[in-house]
Amino acid sequence: MTTVAAYAAPAAKAPLERTTIERRAVREHDVLIDIKFAGICHSDIHQVREGWGEAIFPMVPGHEIAGVVSEVGPGVTRYKVGDRVGVGCMVDSCRECDNCRAGKEQYCTGGNVMTYNGIGKDGEPTHGGYSEKIVVDEDFVVGIPEGISLDEAAPLLCAGITTYSPLRHWNAGPGKKVAIVGLGGLGHMAVKIAHALGAEVTVLSQSLRKKDDGLRLGADHYYATADPATFEELKGAFDLIVSTVSAPLDLGAYLSLLRTDGALVNVGAPEEPVSLNLFSVIGGRKTLAGSSIGGIRETQEMLDFCAEHGIGAEIELIGAAEINEAYERVLNSDVRYRFVIDAATI
User: Where is the Enoyl reductase (ER) domain (predicted)?
Assistant: First the structure.
């Protein structure tokens, strides 16, 4: 066991504070990672505040982890000391179900082990990236290509793969009109990736406040959803809409923007239930769907794609002492576009 410094929430809704946690000794197939940077995801805030249900405390959040390998177990074949690596939202799965065997560990029917606020196969709670080090089985570690700086790579481990996976699955590319709802931590990555895939990209945001940013990041068009005329003008315009917001939407209004056989895919997860008139999907054979993160293979594919296209997250680097302030700023939409913690300050 190794004792490392970390920032943890001692109880639900409590401010995060500096503490120490134990990391397991490196086992045969484990990789010990010196964490360099950890992104702050809105999911961290949902879970610290138990917005998605009962959670495990004390909780060390963080599932956007970028670092450098400092030790490997004797059976490790994929990584060596000094490699640049990342860890995303999960650190294990059953590895036996059909989904796991197909490389879709995010949909493990046996239940995957989340990077934090989960229970590992050893029965111990998992702790995430707001810490100095982490030990992870090599099968759940990905390599970060040299073409991406580690600080800009960290948010790709959640925000990047969460948007890349549905864009790939629903075939965003040349000839497709794709709308991204929200221009936040997830949304700005969705715009960059959809643009790199060759789609015609539209941002749908509450206001035009971030329009210049949206166009700079790769959007072709930008509309304010607070303006009712937007929904009239864009009716039947899109093949695919990816909603990245965590607030309830008027699903019927957004479904009306789809072409026949179009899909509205939700990657943001509101804490409240949403309602739907089924005629919104029956007319036009439309699909209302959701998408989680990606599997390990797809996450590596995403990182390689981002390196090839020069894509990193737009970040604001902070010290660990600023985490609680950063949480409040995220809730106030006051970040362009992802806070990243410099782990050297932990």
Answer: 14-341
Using DSSP's 3-state secondary structure scheme, residue 293 falls into: coil
Distance CA 191, CA 260 (A): 23
d(CA 297, CA 221): 32
Beta strands in the chain (DSSP E): 2-8, 17-23, 30-39, 65-72, 84-87, 90-92, 113-114, 133-137, 142-143, 177-181, 200-205, 221-224, 238-243, 258-266, 287-290, 315-318, 338-342
Question: What is the Cα–Cα distance from 305 to 84, expressed in whole angstroms?
Answer: 16
**CA–CA distance, 30 with 26 (Å, rounded to integer):** 5
Instruction: Classify residue 310 by burial, with Cβ atoms within 10 Å: 0-12, 13-18, 19+.
Output: exposed
pLDDT tens digits for 154-202?
999 999 999 999 999 999 999 999 999 999 999 999 999 999 999 999 9
Is 154 found in the same domain as 50?
yes
Look at the block and give the residue holding tokens 């919104």: 280
Sign of CA dihedral 178, 182, 183, 184: negative
The CA distance from 201 to 193, in Å, is 10
The answer on 87 and 173 residing in a single domain is no
CATH number for the domain that contains residue 153? 3.90.180.10
How far apart, in whole angstroms, are the C-alpha atoms of residue 116 and residue 299?
A: 18
Q: Which domain holds residue 130?
A: 2-158+312-345
User: Residue 206 belongs to a domain with what CATH number?
Assistant: 3.40.50.720
Residue with token string 């700023």: 329
What is d(CA 107, CA 291) in angstroms, rounded to the nearest whole number? 10
